[in-house]
Amino acid sequence: MIRDWIDLTKPRILQLNLIAAFAGFWLASQWNYNWLLLLWMLLGTSLTMASACVINNIWDWKLDQKMSRTKDRPLATGRLNIRGVLLYALALGVAGELVLFWKVNRLCGWLGLLGMFVYIVVYTMWLKRSSTWSTSLGGISGSMPPVIGYCAVTHEIDTGALLLFALLFLWQPAHFWSLAIRRVDEYTAAGYPLLPVRKGIRRTKLQMIPYVVLLLPTVALIYIYEYAGAVFLMVSLLAGVVWCWHTLRGPSASNNDSWARTNFLISVNYLMFVFLFMILDTTGRPF
Predict the structure, then answer these.
(1) How far apart are the C-alpha atoms of 195 and 249, rounded to whole Å?
(2) Which one of 145, 161, 227, 276 has the largest count of C-beta atoms within 10 Å of its C-beta?
(3) SS3 of 283, please?
(4) Looking at domain 1-157, does it have CATH number 1.10.357.140?
(5) What is the pLDDT of residues 25-70, one digit of tens each?
(6) Cβ neighbours around 122 below 10 Å, total
């Protein structure tokens, strides 16, 4: 039973986003960190994101029953009731926003609310069921965690915050579309109008390319504006080139499932490497 309540918050998504929030905080603090502020930021961000994920589960429970990847979720199987889960989501959201507004700063609180609004209303309730733009525009919410972490220190949206937003915003479509290509039949059966469902797999592979290519100048600008050092730049560019090379091979790949699986794994590792070396090689303490 406890496991079901935890699963509603999509812990894997939370884990990745908390790493992003930590990296944003570390980039702004430049090793001159406030541990208490960091902990409050991570707590508020995790509770806010968890609330949005739980509401996503509530809204999608009927469609979840149609997909093998999601059919065993607690609401899809009826192990939990919607009323109790809704109260759970509201409690998480209120708690998360209280922490962000009063223990971090107002800007982070508003950013948390913006992320929730985009994920719940724009993505889950509107675009996910009506448009291929759901992945791209829904990426706004997924780009909030590193910006919240950064603004917890700076109290303002500056060039660093915008670059962190761009990094996550550009990363998400190719990452998610790689998964969608592998599950295209399930998404078609469930009625999700994703890009590979509406426009086909080849069009999806082509549309991934500009997102991945634009990540290269984004990480270069993080170095140019002296937020991170040369080691960060070299590792990030190398990882980006590998991902670009594999993505460019997508349209000619004959085995879509194998290509998409590899591209998905590359995307996950790319982001982990970028954030790891962003943390280790901020300009406040370069290698």
Answers:
(1) 19
(2) 145
(3) coil
(4) yes
(5) 999 998 888 999 999 999 999 999 999 999 999 999 888 888 888 8
(6) 17
CB atoms near residue 165 (< 10 Å): 21
pLDDT at 287: 47
Domain locations along the chain: 1-157, 158-287
The token duo for 195 is 């890009």
Q: Hunting for tokens 């979720």 — which residue is that? A: 73
Q: In Å, how far are 38, 105, 275 from 18, measured between CA atoms?
A: 11, 18, 11
Q: What are all long-range contacts of 92-98, with beta carbons under 8 Å and residues at least 24 apart?
A: 92/9, 92/47, 92/48, 92/50, 92/51, 92/54, 93/47, 93/48, 93/51, 93/52, 95/47, 96/43, 96/44, 96/45, 96/46, 96/47, 96/48, 96/49, 96/50, 96/51, 97/44, 97/48, 98/44
Element (H, E) at 151: helix 144-154
Tell me the pTM.
Answer: 0.94
